[in-house]
Amino acid sequence: MTALFIFALRVLGGFLAAKFLLGLLGEGSPGSLLLLTSLLVANLYLFDVLDWYYEGAWRRALTPREMGWLLTRLAVWLNRVRPRSREPEAAPRPPEGEASGK
Questions:
Q1: Handedness of CA 68, 61, 51, 6 (dihedral sign)
Q2: 77 by DSSP, 3-state: which?
Q3: Cα(40)–Cα(18) distance, rounded to whole angstroms?
Q4: Chain mean position to CA 70
Q5: DSSP secondary structure string, 6-40?
């Protein structure tokens, strides 16, 4: 019963994530929704199998504290202010043959 409940939660989470992603992309066909949901659920089970194969090394390496630190660093990296270019951009010139508003 526990495995069925976990599967149902994963399908629900995958469905909601797929619905959100497809809504952002503007694609809303039932076939693409079903395909993306199944890919997301399969991805979760792939991570479970790999975690089992590596005897929980991923789970021990990615503790909630470490994940929080990584997400914080990612957020800071995404929101950094990029330096402005040193050279000012030249204003576009009108073509030679046209009058300049006189």
A1: negative
A2: helix
A3: 8
A4: 15
A5: HHHHHHHHHHHHHHHHHHHHT---HHHHHHHHHHH
pLDDT by residue, tens only, the chain of 102 residues: 798 999 999 999 999 999 999 988 888 789 999 999 999 999 999 988 888 888 887 777 778 888 889 889 989 988 887 776 666 666 667 677 665 555
d(C-alpha 18, C-alpha 6), whole Å: 18
Residue 89 one-letter amino acid: E
Beta-carbon count within 10 A of 52 CB: 10
Place of tokens 């079903």: 34
d(CA 102, CA 89) in angstroms, rounded, equals: 25
- Cβ atoms 37, 18 nearer than 8 A: yes
Residues found in the chain:
102
Q: What is the dihedral of CA 37, 43, 44, 48, to 10 degrees?
A: 160
In this prediction the pTM is: 0.56
